Amino acid sequence: MPHWHPRRTQIEQRMLSNEFSINPLFVRKGEEAVPRFRMRDQSMLPETAYQIIHDEIALDGNARLNLATFVTTWMEPAAERLYAQSVDKNMIDKDEYPQTAAIEERCVRILADLWNSPDPHNTIGVSTTGSSEACMLGGLALKRRWQNERKKHGKPIDRPNIVFSSAVQVVWEKFANYWEVEPRYVNISQDHPHLDPEGVLSAVDENTIGVVPIFGETYTGIYEPVAAIAKALDEHQAKTGLDIPIHIDAASGGFIAPFLQPDLVWDFRLPRVKSINVSGHKYGLVYPGLGWIIWREVEDLPEELIFRVSYLGGNMPTFALNFSRPGAQVLLQYYNFLRLGKDGYYEVQKTSQAVAQFLSKEILDMGAFELLTDGSDIPVFAWKLKEGHTSNWNLYDLSRQLRIFGWQVPAYPLPPDMEEVTIMRIVVRNGFSMDLAQLFMLNLKQAVSYLDSLDGPIPHDTKYDNGFHH
């Protein structure tokens, strides 16, 4: 059975014919074929270009059946109409699009209030192209604040470090690499499945710019215990004088906990939490790409990270990493805030959680699997193959078998120290109904039944045994 792998796919793409063939209905003189890997000299009919691309992307997976991605794959028709009407808006050009800029500012205030900022109308925040950019900004602010404080006391600034669990999303590895900050990973284990106070205290020192708990872990969906970590750092400061801030990577949980777990203390109610990022294009229910970052107070974003530009028609501050970027997604976020309100967000997220918990229970009841999580935090759950169930197939085989039905469910190893454990994970998003969940269970049982019927083991190429799990 062939294995999909991005590198191998790139090589195979280069082995294709150097030309596209064109449906005769669209052909003009000299257009019987067009080059695949270089730009042609002549233009072509819009219908011809459309047909070529449309035919190719027909081979992509069905987004609604993609249970791997956290990213929103469905919005209602009114939102799509608004999207189509605003795709030309450039978020950076606040002089040309002042109302779009005003709406971005309103969204910042709404999120600051949602996350219990002490002064939501006077704090600072910004939209970004996604949580990855927002994380970079949060990390930069941590580093610059640490440097400024060290300079005040005449201390060196050349060895900053940042602390997070080994289950952290790859953006934090990138941040540490790009901005020359030592990453200190607290490895997860069976006894310590997430970042915890003990692990944090073993890693921090006077060069720690911040601690980054994950509020909705990518691998399993669990919340890392922010309040307990903050309390441990409070006690550590009382003993050592080290004031170590927290940035919350709430890419997924930032739009879940305020509605499904409102009494859970994780946000700006904890004074040590200085900034929070979230993905608007995940459980914010907006098409990609959109992220947000909010700082607890204006002082938590160092002034030197804010740049002022005048060449777009007005003197405007900017502190995102990207310059030009879409404004349409910001308008879609505000649309959701108006359309749903707190009650609507609760209903949408509660439905997703109910579907996740239904599926996790059904999968547990099959007897072939063990749950790692059940969807009780964010609507995401993970499972592994029960030890001793079979030696003929593994979860990578099951993932490939499910693709036959159209379902995309990733299989992948856990982080270092637990990489020998392979898991599968399902992300339940708005639009994945209970009806679809029941159809998925029917196909899952069919896939397992087929694999269990095999007389011998499936041969494996472990080099390609991995699934996409963003």
Automatic annotation (TrEMBL):
Keyword check for Heme: no
One GO location term (cellular component): cytosol
A biological process term (GO) from this entry: L-glutamate catabolic process
Keywords attached to this entry: Decarboxylase, Lyase, Pyridoxal phosphate
Record PTM N6-(pyridoxal phosphate)lysine, positions in chain: K282
Gene3D superfamilies attached to this UniProt entry: 3.90.1150.160, 4.10.280.50, Type I PLP-dependent aspartate aminotransferase-like (Major domain)
Species classification: Bacteria, Bacillati, Bacillota, Bacilli, Bacillales
Protein name as annotated: Glutamate decarboxylase
Family membership noted in the UniProt record: Belongs to the group II decarboxylase family.
Cofactor(s) this protein cannot do without: pyridoxal 5'-phosphate
The protein's enzyme class: lyase
SUPFAM superfamilies in alphabetical order: PLP-dependent transferases
EC number assigned by the record: 4.1.1.15
UniProt entry tagged with the keyword Metal-binding: no
UniProt xrefs under Pfam families: Pyridoxal_deC
GO molecular function: aromatic-L-amino-acid decarboxylase activity; glutamate decarboxylase activity; pyridoxal phosphate binding
Catalysed reactions, semicolon-separated: L-glutamate + H(+) = 4-aminobutanoate + CO2
